Amino acid sequence: MTAVDDRPMTTDMLKYFENFEFPEEFKVELLRGEIVMMAGPDVAHNDIVEAIVDQIPRRQWRRLQTQDIAILEETSQPQPDLVVIERGTGPGQGRLMPSEVITMLVEVVSKTSVERDYGVKRSIYAAAKVPAYLIIDPVMAQCVLLTEPTGHGEHADYRRQRITKFGDVTPLETIGIELDTSEFAPYEKVRPHRYP
After folding, report:
1. CB–CB of 82/106 below 8 Å?
2. Is the pLDDT of residue 18 over 70?
3. pLDDT tens digits for range 42-75
4. Going by fewer Cβ within 10 Å, which terminus of the chain is more open, N or C?
5. What are phi and psi of 29, to 5 degrees?
């Protein structure tokens, strides 16, 4: 497989995004040609990601945090909270992980990312044919597992959706585990939303 960084850039936006130096204290993503900058996550968010990583067997899976993803057809380079790929696949160096080798992506909803995580990223990850997309939502104290990607572009989506509440076991068949969510803490004093 050719390293993603060696692939030719498909648009001027990708070239600009690749060459611009963003402030280090921000998380920066390219989502369908739009540059999105966010402040770093809070402690509750990071505790959830840590609890997930601890449950995914390291011998079988690479559990990559703050890993940029290359989805060139979508003019997107998202940075999910967690990228899970089979050990022994994907490049060992470089900034970008090709979407073709990804088994599961995880996003932990922040107070400002609800629409992106449930909307545009859902569509982008489905268009990239990522087999499983897990949304951990501390706003609503729930996990939303999306599987069976279908469609193209902005019309792409997942056929199957399973919702479990914090405290319940969330089966992740794609990686062969049952995720214990008992340690997941909901955010305090936040307004509920209408998703999924």
Report:
1. yes
2. no
3. 899 999 999 999 999 999 999 999 899 998 778 8
4. N
5. -130, 155
Tokens of 157: 């989506």
- The reported pLDDT for the residue numbered 104 is 98
Please check whether residue 109 is in contact with residue 127, taking contact to mean a CB–CB distance below 8 angstroms: no
Chain centroid, CA 2 distance in Å: 23
Mapping DSSP onto H, E and C, the string for the chain reads CCCHHHCCCCCHHHHHHHHCCCCCCEEEEEECCEEEEEECCCHHHHHHHHHHHHHCCCCCEEEECCCEEEEHHHCEECCCCEEEEECCCCCCCCCEEEHHHEEEEEEECCCCCHHHHHHHHHHHHHHCCCCEEEEEECCCCEEEEEEEEECCHHHCEEEEEEEEECCCEEEECCCCEEEECCCCCCCCCCCCCCCC
Structural contact between residues 100 and 140, judged by C-beta atoms closer than 8 angstroms: no
Record the tokens describing residue 144, joined without a space. Answer: 């939303």
